[in-house]
Amino acid sequence: MTAPVKRGVPLSDHEIFVVDGALRDVWVRSVEVEDWDRVISALTESAWEVAFSTTHPLGNALLRSGAAALFAALEEGGQDSAAFSVRIDGIWFTSYFFDSSEIEFTFDPADVVGAAEVSVVEAFMRRVGDACGRRVVMSMESSSDREGLPALFEYTPERS
């Protein structure tokens, strides 16, 4: 049985997904590049729509080269960027590969309009967490001090 996605704060769905100009982040801290590879593989192998775009000359081959090579190429290029997106029932979850030690996907809370969309967010969090075997947190968007933000939702996969 899969562990439940838990609420980290006593707020309603409406309050958690209020359109306030900020995106929501789904993130996993202290990861290794192998965790990235497992997450990308799990998302790519899902029935969900995935898209990869990059300004790097290697194009789509960059994603197939693995996370270590992808991060190295982006760092070496300096100006290059990449985005990996997953669309589930109209909600786009996008990673921009900012930091190899943290998996982060952003999404727009405006896309979460009811219980069905909340279930989509939970399913996405479970897929990410199960793939890398680590705790996944959804919080408000942040570029720093992520640990200072309360977890709106959190998921910790069961260990076997």
Task: Write a brief caption for the model.
This protein has 160 residues and is of the alpha+beta class. Helix content is 31%, strand content 24%. The protein has 5 helices and 8 strands, in the order βαβαβααβββαββ.
List the helices and strands and how they pair.
Elements: E1 6-7, H1 13-16, E2 24-28, H2 33-44, E3 49-54, H3 61-64, H4 67-77, E4 82-88, E5 91-95, E6 103-107, H5 115-132, E7 136-140, E8 153-155
Antiparallel strand pairs: 1-8, 2-6, 2-7, 3-4, 4-5, 7-8
Helix pairs in contact: 2-5
Kindly list the characteristics that best describe this protein.
alpha+beta; 5-stranded antiparallel sheet; 3-stranded antiparallel sheet; 5 helices; 8 strands; 24% strand
Portion in strands: 15-25%
> How many DSSP helices?
5
How many DSSP E strands? 8
Gyration radius, to the nearest Å? 15 Å
Mean pLDDT: 92
Task: Give the overall form.
Answer: globular
Characterize the biggest β-sheet: 5 strands, antiparallel
Describe the structure.
- This protein has 5 helices and 8 strands.
- 31% of the residues lie in helices and 24% in strands.
- Strand 4 and strand 5 form a beta hairpin.
- The radius of gyration is 15 Å and the shape is globular.
- It is α+β, with helices and mostly antiparallel strands and 160 residues long.
- Helix 2 (33-44) packs across helix 5 (115-132).
- The mean pLDDT is 92.
- The strands form 2 sheets. A 5-stranded antiparallel beta sheet has the order 1-8-7-2-6, covered by helices on one side. A 3-stranded antiparallel beta sheet has the order 3-4-5.
